[in-house]
Amino acid sequence: FWCRGEEFVVAELTLFKPVNRDTVFAEIYLLRSDGDHLGAAWESMRVEFLSTNNPSDVDLFQVCWWYTEAVIPFDKWLCWIDYHRGILFCDMSKLPNQPTVSFIWFPLDKLPISGIRKGTSTSCYRAVSVVDSGRALKFVNITRDDGIPFAALKPGTGFTITCHTLMLGGGSMAWKEDYTVTSGELWEANTPERLPRRILMFPQVDIDRPHEAHFLSVEFGYAN
């Protein structure tokens, strides 16, 4: 759901993946407001992806394995998020003309080479947050040292938290790293009572205080 003033759009996006993978299209279905009245019917359209860079075959291969885990409105876009890969941006400001769809990968060390979703790359450890009254987008990532997808930390291991801001300008998008902090640094600055030696999960940047991030400290037991 995306809105601006009295204008609003309800949209769904799925992917059309040609066998040869030379191009990838977005199938968009949307219902939009028309003045003070709701549009009479759903519209459908097929839109080819745009990119500020020329995507390689690996990039197109990754898009073909896309799996949407979250959808958020940001500025003029509706954003479809795959926490294994990145964000699809659908420009709703172009309506009633055909919208455009662009994409950007998350600033990760590596991407999964297939559609198999395993390892620590899950939505439990990553989050995209819209801050600064809707003008900025932040991405927080938690990387576990032990590589376990979902369990208590192995003894003697920790984790690293990174935060990036999406920079916009000149028709391009790029991630800028804000900070990196390790669990050792956090634990050294806090007593065990204030910050238990447990994995932090479900990150979220504070909307009103973008320099702060919140996490859940999860204590695993027999029942997760």
Average residue-wise pLDDT: 80
How does the major sheet shape up?
9 strands, mixed
Distance between the termini: 32 Å
What's the helical proportion of residues?
Answer: under 10%
Question: How many separate helices?
Answer: 2
Unreliable runs, pLDDT <50, ≥5 residues?
52-58
SS content category: mainly beta
- N to C succession of SSEs: EEEEEHEEEEEEEEHEE
Radius of gyration, in angstroms, nearest whole number: 20 Å
- Envelope shape: elongated
Proportion of residues in extended strands: over 45%
Give the number of DSSP strands. 15
What does this protein look like?
- The protein is mainly beta.
- It contains two helices and 15 strands.
- It has helices spanning 57-64, 183-189, and strands at 2-4, 7-16, 25-34, 37-38, 43-50, 70-74, 77-82, 86-91, 101-105, 126-131, 136-144, 159-169, 172-182, 200-205, 213-217.
- Strands 1, 2, 3, 4, 5, 6, 7, 8 and 9 form a nine-stranded mixed beta sheet that branches.
- The longest helix is centred in the N-terminal third of the chain and has 8 residues, at 57-64.
- The chain is elongated and about 60 Å long.
